[in-house]
UniProtKB/TrEMBL annotation:
InterPro entries: EF-hand-dom_pair, EF_Hand_1_Ca_BS, Fol_N, Follistatin/Osteonectin_EGF, Kazal_dom, Kazal_dom_sf, Osteonectin_CS, SPARC/Testican_Ca-bd-dom. It comes from the Eukaryota. It comes from Aldrovandia affinis. Belongs to the SPARC family. Transmembrane segments: none annotated. Its main location: secreted. It is found in: Secreted, Extracellular space, Extracellular matrix, Basement membrane. This is SPARC. One of its GO terms (molecular function) is collagen binding. Disulfide bonds join C115-C126, C120-C136, C138-C173, C144-C166, C155-C192, C198-C308, C316-C332. Residues 137-194 form the Kazal-like domain.
């Protein structure tokens, strides 16, 4: 159900974001997203058991899959503690997570199966050794479900198209420990294609639409949050102020001039949405920095539609350390230094 709500948000908001410029592509995207929605709704069991009234788990046991730093830390997969989606998860993240789910929880009638509920990172599957101890091993790409169409293809940073994200991550896993594997990331969703270079004036338009989009995502979540599981109470209080502000620019198709004017006039309404999105992405680990992997749920679906995505996020990383810090993030969305507030990342 929550997936359905998230999906409609994605459809609505992604549509709004790129409607005018890319209406034909959007149609393809809507079909793609609808297919994902269907997939998500028909395969709820893959999610594993969901604990009601989940306790707040501070440290997510899922470790970061791909780090861009040179020294990739060696991490051990841990059994999953709880699979419930974090409160207020970004719908874009939710859907992408569903899409590039290469993690398999092996279902087995034998309750003793140690692989049951054993969580492996993308590209790996659980197997038991002689001692019946579960372990994660690289998935054979040929065991990935065949792609249902082009919309399941993904493009790697090596500009190679993979049948699905499962095929991509299984291939990447096999290259683990090599330079090639280290450099390889999922670039965007869809087959590799020519993406026209982003020129300066186009780059300056990108944050205008993105900020407006983030604000509308939050307002939509607020309006639909009947079950109190889309936004936390703290988040709701923040969004309530935006929602109830009479001066708020209503969701719709706006010219860039109007968006720019609104950002100037109603600047305060944009501060929280920019912080909120950062918090949604900064999860593995929660450290005030976004790695390539953490950013991926946002950028991978956007790149085929918004050709400035890559350049925008590259330039966000002002100190070029391969991570986007909160300060860098806020700055590239036009948030003034004095308004950057860690406490808003809630
Ligand atoms: Ca992080
Ligand atoms: Ca940086």
């Amino acid at each position: 159900m929550r997936m359905g709500i998230g999906m409609s948000n994605v459809l609505f908001l992604l549509f709004r974001l790129t409607h005018k410029r890319l209406s034909l592509k959007m149609r393809v995207w809507i079909i793609f997203l609808l297919c994902l929605a269907g997939k998500a709704l028909t395969a709820p069991t893959e999610e594993g058991p969901i604990i009601d009234e989940d306790p707040i788990v501070e440290e997510d046991p899922i470790v970061e899959e791909e780090s861009i730093v040179d020294e990739e830390p060696i991490v051990e997969e841990e059994p999953i503690v709880e699979e419930e989606m974090e409160v207020g998860a970004n719908p874009v993240q939710v859907e992408t997570g569903e899409f590039d789910e290469a993690i398999e929880v092996i279902e087995d009638v034998v309750t003793e199966n140690p692989c049951l509920n054993y969580h492996c990172k993308k590209g790996k599957v659980c197997e038991v050794d002689e001692g019946n101890t579960p372990m994660c091993v690289c998935q054979d790409p040929t065991t990935c479900p065949p792609a249902n169409g082009e919309f399941e293809h993904v493009c790697g940073t090596n500009n190679k198209t993979y049948d699905s994200s499962c095929h991509f991550f299984a291939t990447k896993c096999a290259l683990e420990g090599t330079k090639k594997g280290h450099k390889l990331h999922l670039d965007y969703i869809g087959p590799c294609k020519f993406i026209s270079p982003c020129v300066d004036h186009e780059l300056s338009e990108f944050p205008l639409r993105m900020r407006d989009w983030l604000k509308n995502v939050l307002v939509t979540l607020y309006e639909r949050d009947e079950d109190h599981n889309l936004l936390s109470e703290k988040q709701k209080l923040r969004v309530k102020k935006i929602f109830e502000n009479e001066k708020r620019l209503q969701a719709g198709e706006h010219s860039l001039d109007l968006l720019a004017h609104d950002f100037e006039k109603n600047y305060n309404m944009y501060i929280f949405p920019v912080h909120w999105q950062f918090g949604q992405l900064d999860q593995h680990p929660i450290d005030g920095f976004l790695s390539h992997t953490e950013l991926s749920p946002l950028r991978a679906p956007l790149i085929p539609m918004e050709h400035c995505t890559t350049r925008f996020f590259e330039e966000c990383d002002a100190d070029k350390d391969k991570y986007i810090a909160l300060e860098e993030w806020a700055d590239c969305f036009g948030i003034k230094e004095q308004d950057i507030d860690k406490d808003l990342v809630i």
